[in-house]
Amino acid sequence: MFSTFSLHKFAVLALASSSLAKPTSPASKSSYISTISSPGCGTLKLTTTGSIIRAEIDSPTINLSHDFSVIDSLAGQTKNQSNSSTPVKAVIISSASPDFWISHYDIHTLSVNDPVKPPGNASTIGDEIARSVAALANLPVISIAEINGQVTDAGDELIGRARALEYMLSARPMDAVTAAIIGWVSRAFGSAAKLKGEVDALAERIAGFPTQALAAIKERVNAQNPSVEDVQGDNDSFVELAATETVNKAAGRFLKLGEEQTDTRFERDIPDNITEIVG
Asked: How far apart are the first and last CA of the chain?
């Protein structure tokens, strides 16, 4: 389910990680860099080291997105390497911005008066998000979100019905420590350096286990995820609400207060400021 609040600095989310045997020795430490770009989502800088890819999001100034094709491309590239001599086992998703991990999708997708520019498409945004999430979830590799900075989120069913309702209905902010306590992220750290070091160590350990074992564990853990029908129901509700005049007016106020979705006071503390667009 989708919502409009944030996790602030220094949290890490391991989407699926476990072990069946003692890990083998790390693979070669040599690295190579490539990029995936799109006009609606900036650039993903991919640094591949052995069986680990670090995908760094870079979409100035606030890591805004209305084009999720880069995630599809990342999933495709990862899948293509699955049969290589050094298959990808873990993908770390980080941010080039010290203040924003992923801020939110382009609010122009909700505005009739000031619609999103191509390649963005307001009528398909929900389906694109669901497809991209499914692409990562279904890959036989482990995804680790290195969350350092503000982020809006989905997946609130993970924290239980009462807490999901509390945070979704109130759009209240949440700090990383609280997020770790209630299970929204797996751990929280006091500095960006400690976060990165722990994520790198986790990915290295995961990459030491057999590919088939990692894929099997992830598949069984994913069995607890919402069904395709549940996700489609969320998307249908989103599209229905997005078509209302109430949302169109709120989107206009959002774009004005955020100065066209740039690094502003409003954007830096969206959960605290979100009530300013209501009315």
From this structure: 24
**What pLDDT score does 181 carry?**
93
What are the tokens at 199? Answer: 């994520």
SS3 content of the chain, % helix, strand, coil (to 5): 45, 20, 40
Q: Which two tokens stand for residue 165?
A: 């309702």
Q: What is d(CA 69, CA 48) in angstroms, rounded to the nearest whole number?
A: 20
Cα 32 off chain centre by: 24
Alpha helices in the chain (DSSP H): 69-80, 125-138, 161-170, 176-182, 192-206, 211-222, 228-242, 245-257, 265-268, 270-273
Contacts 24+ apart (CB under 8 A), 98-101: 98/148, 98/149, 98/192, 99/62, 99/149, 99/150, 99/263, 99/268, 100/62, 100/63, 100/149, 100/150, 100/151, 100/263, 101/7, 101/57, 101/63, 101/145, 101/147, 101/148, 101/149, 101/150, 101/151
pTM of the model: 0.84
> Given the structure tokens 């490539």, which residue do they identify?
34
* Pair of tokens at residue 241: 């609400």
- Report mean pLDDT in 10-residue bins for the chain, 279 residues: 36 37 50 78 87 92 77 82 85 92 86 80 73 82 92 79 90 89 91 94 96 94 84 82 90 94 92 87
Q: What is the DSSP string of 129-187?
A: HHHHHHHHHHSSSEEEEEE-SEE--B-GGGG-HHHHHHHHHHT--B-HHHHHHHTSSSE
